[in-house]
Design a protein that fits this description.
The chain is α+β, with helices and mostly antiparallel strands and about 120 residues long. The protein has helices at about 1-5, 10-20, 55-70, 95-115; strands at about 25, 30-35, 45, 80-85. This is Ribonuclease P protein component.
Length: about 120
């Protein structure tokens, strides 16, 4: 399911950064921007830089976030691009709290996208 939701291209990331402002949640910062092509669903991208630690730490952060995204993917229904910037604390936080944080982010994005379309 998450494979269909992935934001992959550098140009798409740059487009989201250019059309949005940084928002904050407990365990991450995030950017989001509505898409013009209404036919497709939402897409989610992750950025985990080298400042987050060694490769095995960064990979673990990404695995945990992907699982949390899969668990909450149904909350996003609007055509929107979302980029998540996790904090290093994602490694230590309980997975249920991480899932709840991702759910809060997705609900906030969905509310904003719904308001923008109406």
């Amino acid at each position: 399911m998450y494979a269909d939701l992935r934001l992959r291209k550098h140009a798409d990331f740059q487009s989201v950064y250019g059309r949005s402002r940084k928002q904050h949640a407990r365990q991450m910062a995030y950017f989001f921007a509505p898409r013009e092509d209404e036919g497709t669903g939402p897409r989610v991208g992750l950025t985990v830089g080298k400042v987050m630690g060694k490769a095995h730490d960064r990979n673990r952060i990404k695995r945990r976030l992907r699982a949390a995204i899969r668990a909450n993917a149904a909350l996003l229904t609007s055509p929107v691009d979302v980029i998540l910037h996790p904090r290093r604390s994602v490694l230590e936080v309980e997975f249920e709290k991480l899932k709840a944080d991702v759910a809060d982010v997705f609900r906030a994005v969905q509310r904003s996208a719904s308001r923008a379309r109406s």
